[in-house]
Amino acid sequence: MSLSEQECVACGDKVLYLATDGRCDGCVAQGHGWWTTKEVADYLGVKLGTVSAYHHRGEMPRAEERFGRTYVWRPRTITEWNENRPRRRHKA
User: Fold this and answer.
1) pLDDT tens per residue across span 1-49
2) For residue 66, is it within any domain?
3) Are residues 28 and 48 located together in one domain of the fold?
4) Does residue 92 lie within any of the structural domains?
């Protein structure tokens, strides 16, 4: 039987073994996991309602998982989206 690589749900790295929650050893050791709407808001420096509005208007990546009523994203998904998202230009 050969082993195949699987993708870590937190960082997206391809590894041979994952923890039961789908994270690689590195993410488990470093405490990486899912980002909630609040954690996304903290990262972006905006209010929680702003992230909720982005999500419901489709202006950010779709949530990758949902636990009850809580939407969550991989940190890498949010950081990559934020680096590449269009910005509003303010008039001078």
Assistant:
1) 457 888 887 778 888 887 777 777 777 666 567 888 999 999 999 999 9
2) yes
3) no
4) no
Same domain (yes/no): 38, 82: yes
23 and 60 fall within a common domain: no
66 beta partners: 71
- Interacting residues of 89 by C-beta distance below 8 A, sequence separation 6+: none
For residue 87, the Cα-to-chain-centroid distance in whole angstroms is 20
d(CA 60, CA 79): 11
Kindly state the tokens that stand for 22: 């789908």
Asked whether the whole model's pTM tops 0.70, one would answer no
Give 92's pLDDT tier (boundaries 50, 70, 90). low
Residue 79 pLDDT > 70: yes
Short-list 56, 82, 83, 85, CA closest to 71: 56
Structure tokens at 11: 């960082």
